[in-house]
Design brief:
427 residues; alpha/beta; globular; 23% strand
Length: 427
């Protein structure tokens, strides 16, 4: 079985590779390391731990990929929010350069795993494009490109005509292309990682919800909702946007924001050859950014912010229809075949966080909307750190859990932030 909870409807659930057969935990279990969460972060951590010869178990409350990892946009984007110079300001010159090189190479970790483990997931590495929505944003985008060029990244500026030709839309100004980026079918990739974990010897269980983390001497006790318990020397918590209250304060250290997507029917031949040439993916420079891509079935997929609550009707996605019409008026009449959403874990400083709030407990959280590359790489770095004990294995320091002030008012200040960003996007 693959767990009692069905996958939420989406384009990815409808077109993904079949899920591997994964049972629910049937009896008490003892392991060296238990990883909680079956998304990019958890699967990557478990895989790299097992490949290092460490006895590893992974448990997922629902199905593998049930959360944002099975519902994301499928864009594999290099870097983080901060450009290279911003990382130098954050971490210092040497550590900032190291972080920039590490975060800039996150797509390599994804495509290397795809190749090494023969993961069938529509992997395409044609590049990620960032078009500018205004002249001011154009200057900032081209400066971003310049900074990455100075580090030797495979990037290039695009003028307005080149951008319009590549996108198949004149809606934007100049921008840049980062050829390190690409796309995957996210649920197929997640399921492929699960198969790789099984092949590496990871004990993998779905439909297994951990209800508490209890320190017991040199071991942790993890009861589950359906009865059997787990004993482990170390615990790694990788629940990102679906983080609950397993550890005090952790849920309040992030904002779990919804990102929504729509997918058209496969585009007719008259549009197919002109929109997103070569398979590039795109996300623009707006604070309330839009992101879009094609899938191998020829559909046009558009994503952006969502309501704070889970979507309840097609009307909750109307803003994405307007975005589609703004960028591609020639495709605005194409029927929408799929609508879905998922939660993104945003930290206050927009960095991925690694915490160790207790002996033997590690937390990896903060996908920041770039989870495929970022969390895949962070899982590898965290596994290396747990094996060696050397913090230098990671581009970010281990930090304490800090709750976001007035987290209970997050709906209010997220709404205020969205209103502010709407105004900023007019510039």
């Amino acid at each position: 079985m693959t767990g009692p909870t069905p996958m939420p409807p989406s384009l990815w659930a409808a077109t993904a590779e079949p899920a591997p057969e994964i049972d629910r935990l049937a009896s008490d279990h003892t392991t060296d390391v238990v990883v909680i969460g079956g998304g990019y972060a958890g699967l990557s951590t478990a895989l790299h731990l097992a490949e290092a010869g460490i006895q590893t178990t992974l448990v997922e409350a629902h199905q593998i990929g049930w959360g944002a990892s099975g519902r994301s946009g499928g864009q594999v984007i290099p870097g983080i929010k901060y450009d290279p110079e911003g990382m130098r300001e954050l971490f210092g010159t040497d550590a900032g350069d190291k972080a920039a090189h590490a975060f800039g190479a996150t797509p390599d970790h994804v495509f290397d795993l795809v190749e090494r483990h023969y993961i069938t997931c529509e992997a395409t590495r044609a590049g990620w494009v960032q078009p500018a929505h205004s002249k001011l944003a154009e200057r900032k985008a081209l400066e971003r490109c310049r900074q990455w060029q100075a580090l030797g990244a495979d990037v290039a500026p695009l003028d307005a005509d080149q951008m319009a030709d590549l996108l198949g839309s004149p809606a934007y100004h100049a921008g840049w292309i980062d050829r390190r980026g690409g796309s995957i079918q996210p649920l197929s990739y997640t399921r492929g990682l699960a198969r790789a974990c099984l092949a590496a010897g990871v004990s993998l269980y779905g439909g297994t919800a951990v209800t508490a983390l209890r320190a017991d001497g040199a071991r942790w006790q993890l009861p589950t909702a359906h009865g059997p318990g787990i004993r482990a020397r170390r615990v790694v918590l990788c629940t990102n946007g679906y983080t609950g209250d397993l550890w005090p304060g952790l849920r309040k250290s992030i904002v779990a924001a919804n990102s929504f997507q729509i997918a058209t029917v496969p585009l007719p031949a008259t549009l197919d050859a002109t929109i997103l040439k070569g398979g590039v993916v795109a996300s623009d420079t707006r604070k309330l950014l839009a992101y879009w891509r094609r899938d191998q079935g020829g559909r046009l997929i558009v994503g952006g912010r969502g309501t704070f609550n889970e979507p309840s009707s097609a009307a909750d996605f109307n803003h994405l229809n307007r975005i589609l019409a703004r960028i591609y008026p020639q495709a605005a009449d194409q029927p929408i075949e799929y609508r879905w959403g998922g939660r993104v874990a945003i930290t206050q400083d927009f960095l991925p966080h690694v915490h160790q709030p207790a002996d033997g407990l590690s937390v990896l959280i903060g996908c920041q909307g770039r989870g495929i590359g970022l969390q895949t790489a962070m899982g590898r770095w965290l596994a290396a750190y747990l094996e060696s004990g050397q913090a230098s294995d990671m581009p970010v320091p281990v930090t304490a859990v800090h709750q976001i002030p007035m987290h209970s008012l997050r709906r209010f200040y997220v709404s205020a932030m969205l209103a502010y960003y709407k105004v900023r996007d007019l510039v």
